[in-house]
């Protein structure tokens, strides 16, 4: 490779090695070597075990809990900067703290903005992520942000099902834009769930805006946390005459008793990406890998090619 186009290298934080290995295989280069030293009190220190001087490094790290994942990424960015990497691209398939994108009540932080500033201060020169909880988070960065959409891998899967009377659904009002984008591509109708919460992760009431009788419904959302919303929506839709209900969620957080809720719900299938590793297997959960998408876009970025063709939504 010429001096004007140095080779890129891919590294991963501890909890994202499973995904980074798939990304590097799809990219066509081996995963970079690094070690993570641990002190007895839990403090850790990353170390690159190969030269990264003057090249682009891609640091793969989903920042799901615990906060150690984010801290690892920040330390890896700082280490890369001090090792004279030319470009430092933080590849964050799941961007944690994205639900804190605004002040929704007094005396609370805007966590997503804080994380953006921390990443830039550490030395990241580019951010690559997928299906942010709120699009405006891109504006929290002063560096370029490649915001990928999982629709590029989910839409072919939906089409492969060849469902008659297909209907796209949003589990809440906030996801209606995403649902309409899917429906436009698939030429289908849309139904919206209107819900009211008693508290975070606790739904008081839910109603449907639209008719689902005789339809094969596909719920689309950016993440699934406790699973309560999707389970309740699926049960309500079957009650209202839907033939089947599936759900497509990019990020499988699946906290608390989410697996039990999914298993006991009327959901026929839950399709997710591997941006977050599953805690356990389930017959109802199908994983579609986002590794080929990230590998392709990373290759385009490295070779200064346009990535606009990767945006179906």
UniProtKB/TrEMBL annotation:
<dbReference type="Pfam" id="PF13793">
    <property type="entry name" value="Pribosyltran_N"/>
</dbReference>
<protein>
    <recommendedName>
        <fullName>ribose-phosphate diphosphokinase</fullName>
        <ecNumber>2.7.6.1</ecNumber>
    </recommendedName>
</protein>
<dbReference type="InterPro" id="IPR000842">
    <property type="entry name" value="PRib_PP_synth_CS"/>
</dbReference>
<dbReference type="GO" id="GO:0006164">
    <property type="term" value="P:purine nucleotide biosynthetic process"/>
</dbReference>
<keyword id="KW-0460">Magnesium</keyword>
<dbReference type="GO" id="GO:0002189">
    <property type="term" value="C:ribose phosphate diphosphokinase complex"/>
</dbReference>
<dbReference type="GO" id="GO:0005737">
    <property type="term" value="C:cytoplasm"/>
</dbReference>
<feature type="domain" description="Ribose-phosphate pyrophosphokinase N-terminal">
    <location>
        <begin position="9"/>
        <end position="123"/>
    </location>
</feature>
<dbReference type="InterPro" id="IPR029099">
    <property type="entry name" value="Pribosyltran_N"/>
</dbReference>
<dbReference type="InterPro" id="IPR005946">
    <property type="entry name" value="Rib-P_diPkinase"/>
</dbReference>
<keyword id="KW-0808">Transferase</keyword>
<dbReference type="GO" id="GO:0000287">
    <property type="term" value="F:magnesium ion binding"/>
</dbReference>
<dbReference type="GO" id="GO:0009156">
    <property type="term" value="P:ribonucleoside monophosphate biosynthetic process"/>
</dbReference>
<keyword id="KW-0963">Cytoplasm</keyword>
<dbReference type="GO" id="GO:0006015">
    <property type="term" value="P:5-phosphoribose 1-diphosphate biosynthetic process"/>
</dbReference>
<dbReference type="GO" id="GO:0016301">
    <property type="term" value="F:kinase activity"/>
</dbReference>
<dbReference type="GO" id="GO:0005524">
    <property type="term" value="F:ATP binding"/>
</dbReference>
<keyword id="KW-0545">Nucleotide biosynthesis</keyword>
<dbReference type="Pfam" id="PF14572">
    <property type="entry name" value="Pribosyl_synth"/>
</dbReference>
<keyword id="KW-0547">Nucleotide-binding</keyword>
<dbReference type="GO" id="GO:0004749">
    <property type="term" value="F:ribose phosphate diphosphokinase activity"/>
</dbReference>
<dbReference type="InterPro" id="IPR000836">
    <property type="entry name" value="PRTase_dom"/>
</dbReference>
<keyword id="KW-0067">ATP-binding</keyword>
<keyword id="KW-0418">Kinase</keyword>
<dbReference type="InterPro" id="IPR029057">
    <property type="entry name" value="PRTase-like"/>
</dbReference>
<keyword id="KW-0479">Metal-binding</keyword>
